[in-house]
Backbone:
């Protein structure tokens, strides 16, 4: 239910309570707060899941996930669970709580606390609600991916976990289009963890790292190198222009560099860097290429086989859940990782690469996020990588069309834009905070600019499980807000 992929779901969740119908096995008087909020209320004494479905039929509610159940006994909780109700609340004091909790309600509360619980979790003004996320990650995920994350508890020292990791690695290689001799390190943490572990494994003592910087994330790589004690040099470029490979070639003329680090898709602005030709320059100079593909893998054209270390996230354009990341390593990169003395226990890339041989992760892995990634990769492979990119192209075209129609100027030239982010100049006299809050009230979340651009632009992303009409719905809300001044 919590998938705001369309404009109508965004509008509903922005204005309506979580449950359109509440069925009370007890204490119907407590549901006055729900009635005042626009929900329907039904009372029943029948102890059968069919009582819930009968109430739905009479109220013309056709989705049991839009139904809340209120009861005082473990049997009431069990009935709500069996029916698949979207919310199951048990009313009971401290003495009754242990038995009620064993029945697994969503919440247990005393009668005096229900009204506050309702307003906090289920009411039309509740804080935590599904929204159309137009920020560049976390991205929207499908119900299938969410279900996979909570499907089972797994011990990471057992063979079933080893099989799951093997399966995920094989699917990642397939998506990346690389052969079996490429290694895959699965890590717990955001894409930043993947990037930093790759940085620490890329450079040998006495050698240097060349960092391409044309946005916040390139600058972050430089800070990673600095904190790791790695000698590095910056190749700074304007934030609105891709780095020209000739500049990389010029810098690599000095034979001191072990690797070149570059961000493929600078999330700061939605700018794409030409990583393929930068990698050619690096290879000619005998250097590895380290690519931050955190916000591009799965949506952009990326010849992974021509690179060496490619850091990615399970979320964003793969449509998995946050909390898992990975590094794709060429044979040369895996050899480099084994050669470099690790400067961190947790960020030791070589240690994670060895898991393919040992079958035993060095630390507790992000179990739910990897279960979700497995399901998300199935979705991507069923759709096809080319079709996924085409879908992103169509989304970007809708955004461009709608932004142009609104007369809003974009920061990045059309030929250098990604398929997933648009940096839009704020209209004169419109502060981002006001625009953000009004759009969020309508069901849409957009992102601020970063660094020196924070007062100049806002960002709109089309990552994740998102339908085209959600983008048109967003444009309609944006048009209304701008017209309102």
Residues:
């Amino acid at each position: 239910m919590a998938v705001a992929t369309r404009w109508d779901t965004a509008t509903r969740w922005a204005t309506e309570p979580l449950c359109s119908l509440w069925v009370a096995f007890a204490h119907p008087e407590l549901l006055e707060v729900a009635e005042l909020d626009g929900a329907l209320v039904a009372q029943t004494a029948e102890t059968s899941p069919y009582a819930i479905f009968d109430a739905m039929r009479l109220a013309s509610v056709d989705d049991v996930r839009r139904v809340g159940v209120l009861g005082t006994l473990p049997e009431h909780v069990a009935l709500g669970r069996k029916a698949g109700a979207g919310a199951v609340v048990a009313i009971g004091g401290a003495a009754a709580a242990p038995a009620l909790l064993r029945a697994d309600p969503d919440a247990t509360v005393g009668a005096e606390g229900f009204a506050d619980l309702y307003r906090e979790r289920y009411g039309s003004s509740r804080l935590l609600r599904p929204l159309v996320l137009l920020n560049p990650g976390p991205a929207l995920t499908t119900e299938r991916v969410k279900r996979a994350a909570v499907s089972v508890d797994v011990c990471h020292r057992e063979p079933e976990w080893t099989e799951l990791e093997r399966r995920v690695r094989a699917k990642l290689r397939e998506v990346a289009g690389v052969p079996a001799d490429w290694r895959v390190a699965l890590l717990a943490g955001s894409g930043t963890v993947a990037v930093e572990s790759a940085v620490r494994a890329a450079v040998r003592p006495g050698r240097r790292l060349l960092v391409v910087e044309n946005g916040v994330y390139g600058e972050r790589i430089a800070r990673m190198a600095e904190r790791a004690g790695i000698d590095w040099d910056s190749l700074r470029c304007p934030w609105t222009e891709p780095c020209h490979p000739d500049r990389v070639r010029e810098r690599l003329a000095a034979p001191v560099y072990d690797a070149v680090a570059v961000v493929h898709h600078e999330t700061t602005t939605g700018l794409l860097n030409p990583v393929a030709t930068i990698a050619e320059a690096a290879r000619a100079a005998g250097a590895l290429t380290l690519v931050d593909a955190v916000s591009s893998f799965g949506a952009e054209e990326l010849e992974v086989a021509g690179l060496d270390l490619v850091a990615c996230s399970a979320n964003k354009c793969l449509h998995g859940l946050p909390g898992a990341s990975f590094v794709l390593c060429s044979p040369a990169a895996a050899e480099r990782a084994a050669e470099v003395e690790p400067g961190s226990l947790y960020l030791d890339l070589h240690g994670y690469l060895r898991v393919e041989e040992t079958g035993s992760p060095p630390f507790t892995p992000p179990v739910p996020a990897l279960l979700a990634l497995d399901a998300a990769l199935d979705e991507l492979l069923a759709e096809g990588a080319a079709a996924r990119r085409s879908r992103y192209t169509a989304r970007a075209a809708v955004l461009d069309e709608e932004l142009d129609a609104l007369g809003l100027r974009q920061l990045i030239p059309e030929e250098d834009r990604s398929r997933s982010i648009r940096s839009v100049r704020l209209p004169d006299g419109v502060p981002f905070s006001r625009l953000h809050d009004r759009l969020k009230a309508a069901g849409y979340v957009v992102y601020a600019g970063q660094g020196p651009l924070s007062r100049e632009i806002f960002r709109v992303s089309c990552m994740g499980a998102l339908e085209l009409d959600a983008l048109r719905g967003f444009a309609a809300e944006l048009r209304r807000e701008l017209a309102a001044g």
